[in-house]
Amino acid sequence: MAEIKERLATVDPVWARIKREGAEAVASEPLLGGLIHSSLLHHPTMERALAYRMSLKLASGEMSEQILREIGDEAYADDPDLGAAARADLVATVDRDPACHRFVQPILFFKGYQAIQAYRIGNWLWRNGRQDMAYFVQMRVSEVFGVDIHPAAKIGRGVMIDHAHSIVIGETAVVGNNVSMLHSVTLGGTGKEDGDRHPKVGNCVLIGAGAKILGNITIGECSRVAAGSVVLEPVPPHVTVAGVPARIVGEAGCSQPGVSMDQVIKDGAAG
């Protein structure tokens, strides 16, 4: 199986582009050669590179890099969806973030992308009955990246978290495919209630900076949550909500807000 995966890597366009860009980066900035070789160029597959990168970022005096790397390698080998999701997240970041110009940037430098991939390993641990190790990964992701995602949360593919400072996603939250959110977003509960208590975010939703979505409510697909909003009620599909508490102020403005990243509320949209 390992040999098959390594052969497939030769026809993996995402990984091929990463390695090409990595070699170009070394040529233009030789002082980064050690970092780029060890993190990218040394590895036969994207999965192996991600396992190494995550282990390097999350290691501490409490847990060695070697142990975390073995966990990452095991996770990627066991669940091919982790690698597929990592590629979708990477393409989403390059496509949606105007500050991202190359595929190597998120893997090497963007804590939003790195935090999501580390969460995915923690979620794999959770799903395989290794809750305590999953909690350790959650703790280290929070400490290192400032992103606190419960390992039981369910997050789809093609997710982009821009800047990724002070993100909180609760235990029973669900985030669909092709969702984008900015810094300081909370998908939280409303108190001490137990059970299913966190938001369910549909596909292609855009969540603006500082938005708080609280409780077991649904955010309909292809909707927009304006920056700074506090959402306490369900949001229908294809609309924009804004305010404290949030209210519908118009249509979504485009077919896939989470992909287009258009946050501007046009004049006359309220009503």
Q: Descriptors for this entry?
A:
alpha/beta; five-stranded parallel sheet; 15 strands; 271 residues; UDP N-Acetylglucosamine Acyltransferase, domain 1; Serine acetyltransferase; 2 domains; Ser_AcTrfase_N
Structural notes for this entry:
By secondary structure, the chain is an alpha/beta fold. It has two domains: 12-146, serine acetyltransferase, domain 1 (Orthogonal Bundle), CATH 1.10.3130; 153-264, Hexapeptide repeat proteins (UDP N-Acetylglucosamine Acyltransferase, domain 1). It contains ten helices and 15 strands. The chain has helices at residues 2-8, 13-28, 33-41, 46-58, 65-78, 80-96, 104-109, 111-127, 131-145, 257-260; strands at 147-149, 154-155, 160-161, 167-169, 174-175, 180-181, 186-188, 200-201, 206-207, 212-214, 218-219, 224-225, 230-231, 239-242, 247-251. The strands form three sheets. The chain has a six-stranded mixed beta sheet. A hairpin with a 4-residue loop joins strand 14 (239-242) and strand 15. Helix 6 packs antiparallel against helix 8 (111-127) and helix 8 packs antiparallel against helix 9. The longest helix has 17 residues, at 80-96. The radius of gyration is 19 Å and the shape is globular. InterPro entries: Hexapep, Hexapep_transf_CS, LbH_SAT, Ser_AcTrfase_N, Ser_AcTrfase_N_sf, Ser_O-AcTrfase, Serine_acetyltransferase, Trimer_LpxA-like_sf. It is an enzyme of class 2 (transferase). One of its GO terms (cellular component) is cytoplasm. Pathway: Amino-acid biosynthesis; L-cysteine biosynthesis; L-cysteine from L-serine: step 1/2. It catalyses: L-serine + acetyl-CoA = O-acetyl-L-serine + CoA.
